[in-house]
Amino acid sequence: MKHSKTSKSHELKAPTHAWLLGLWNQWFALNKDRFHYPLVCKRAGGYKLIMGFQGLHPGLTFEISMDGCNNGIYFSWDGAEDKALWECLHEADLLEYRTPDSQYYCGFCMEDKITYYPSREAQWEQHVFEQMLLWCNENLHSGRIIVPLGNESWDDETFGAWLETPENAVRRGYTNQSVWIPVVVGEVIG
Fold first, then answer.
1. Most confident by average pLDDT, 17-26, 42-51, 78-87, 145-154
2. Residue ranges per domain, the chain?
């Protein structure tokens, strides 16, 4: 039975960090070979697990975060030692809801795009972890560049970074190749 967002579904409290990391560790043990570039743990503690990729620029990371308002996975570009240059390249948020008949879905999804899951674990694995894996493999590879924009101050509203192909960067007007950063370590772009 399908439910609308206005039915008697209710939002769930965020899972504990220990529960989410346990689920991630189980899923990752079974799926780590599906990543095109091996993942390595860069930092674990508090409410975050930060992972990097062997063979990719060390500033490219993703984090599993549960800080109360941001629950999910965030891919970021950290291009500076002082952490001033940071940009979220992609995010996989989850706002968990459970229907009266114990089906789980994401409250952020458009109503015509909602997928129902039989368990909380299945929801996290399919809606977040699998989507993150697909995004990594589709976007983090040879021939991709990071294009930093703006200046190094958070006061500049034009600051950001794009993950692009060189052709798209030129098409969009970002032609200063001296600031392009290859995603793959050692790759020459230009």
1. 17-26
2. 10-139, 145-182
